[in-house]
Amino acid sequence: MRTIAVFCLFAILSVPTLARADSGLDPEYREQVVASIAQSISDHFYDADRALEIAEALKQATVDGEFAGTKTDSELAEALSRYLSEYDRHFRVSSGQ
What share of the chain is helix, strand, coil (3-state, %, to 5)? Predict the structure, then answer.
């Protein structure tokens, strides 16, 4: 469980920030960050079936606009951490800011 937390900590840092002056983070950037975290969960979470469930739910949450209101990397990281903590309290996402 701790392994995935480390991967999530660095997922946001691996995608360059794309911000729009009018509305904050670019939607494509958010999707890239979520895809990176979802893939990390799929690859490394201790329970493969649960990993698939969490990763798919995370991607669907993005499609549903769950993270659309985030305007900074820090806000996105906090929103992702809150969302993922419902699945496992060890998940943490950090923007490095």
Answer: 60, 5, 35
